[in-house]
Design brief:
This protein is mainly alpha-helical. It folds into three domains: about 1-35, no CATH class; about 40-170, no CATH class; about 170-295. The protein is built from 14 helices and no strands. Helix 12 (about 245-265) packs antiparallel against helix 13 (about 270-295). The radius of gyration is 25 Å and the shape is globular. It starts with a helix and ends with a helix.
């Protein structure tokens, strides 16, 4: 039994949450060194879904002239219908609380069916344009289907696709690389859209908590909201061309950081806490240097340069201390 598990179990015993006999049974069980392959098997299932859907895409690309568009769309539609038929047949139906399925295979079959549906609608729009030039509708339909599947089948992976599709519908790319390259600078409306979407996702988590509607989805919504609001705010802190408007984004970032500081403690979410600190630290430094830019500190600029190493070292030490304290708080 490793040191962490031993300390955690001992803590339960000290608080009289378990008896001495239960402690000895837990200790004896852990000393058997039995481990679960559940995570590894789910990883292989996830990879198989990705490889299968990627293979479908490659097959379409390399044989599009040979097979024909109608044949490809027909095959996709048949596969999608079979997948959804099996999923609906084996599912327990919609439930407000978290649903646990007997077989993890169903979860990844839903994911495969959803990805293939997105491929089908995208390919149909690209080749035959049933929605005309309204590409937003071609994005919105698979997004709505993804939200339905996510809630009906209780699937977090599909929910991620749905939120990504919703962001794409308003003109945002929410992959880590694309977020940093979104044109927030020249298109201020895009920044407001990102912040508003992040705010709406937060409001939805509040509503879900009050109505007890799939509350285990809240972490995914909050993760997207944190990144959207923080990156949009930081981008405009550095490159806003309008006098004073950068202060507004600074206030937004400050409010967001405070909110996610509270939420990360309430939900004991380490990732939210870490990213909140990183974004707040970056924003604070940008805000500080923009203030310095407005004031003439030429006489003591050398002092600032001299203090920079001490400042950054102190920041690293403080960051480590905050993470350790938070970890200690959520594990007690």
């Amino acid at each position: 039994m490793n040191k962490f598990d031993d300390q955690a179990t001992q803590s339960l015993l000290d608080k009289n949450l378990i008896t001495e006999n239960q402690y000895q049974e837990i200790k004896a069980y852990r000393n058997l060194n039995i481990f679960s392959l559940n995570a590894e098997l789910k990883l292989f299932l996830y990879l198989s879904v990705l490889l299968f859907t990627s293979g479908i895409g490659i097959l379409i690309y390399e044989n599009i002239d040979t097979i024909g568009h109608i044949a490809i769309l027909s095959i996709l539609l048949i596969v999608i219908a079979v997948c959804f038929y099996y999923c609906f047949k084996k599912s327990k139906g919609f439930q407000k609380t978290e649903t646990v399925f007997e077989s993890p295979f169903l979860e990844y079959l839903v994911l495969a069916a959803n990805i293939l549906t997105c491929i089908f609608i995208g390919y149909l729009q690209f080749q035959y344009k049933p929605f005309g030039t309204n590409y937003d509708l071609a994005t919105l339909i698979p997004t709505l289907i993804s939200f339905f599947c996510a809630y009906y089948f209780d699937n977090k992976s599909v929910l991620t696709i749905a939120i990504t599709g919703l962001a794409a519908y308003i003109g945002l790319s929410v992959t880590p690389q694309d977020l940093l390259h979104n044109d927030f600078y020249s298109n201020e409306t895009l920044s407001y859209s990102a912040i508003i979407l992040g705010g709406l996702l937060i409001l939805w988590t509040i509503y879900s908590s009050r109505t007890n509607l799939k509350t285990h989805f809240n972490f995914i919504y909050l993760t997207f909201a944190l990144h959207l609001i923080s990156i949009a705010s930081i981008s405009n802190l550095t490159d806003s061309d309008y006098d004073g408007i950068w202060m507004l984004f600074g206030l937004v970032l400050a409010a967001s950081s405070y909110y996610f500081y509270k939420v990360s403690h309430e939900t004991k979410a380490m990732s939210l806490y870490v990213f909140m600190i990183i974004y707040a630290y970056i924003g604070l430094n940008i805000f500080f240097f923009r203030i310095l830019d407005l004031v003439d500190f030429s006489g003591i600029w050398e002092l600032f340069v001299f203090m920079l190493p001490v400042y950054f070292i102190g920041s690293i030490v403080l960051f480590i201390k905050l993470i350790k304290n938070f970890h200690k708080e959520i594990t007690e």
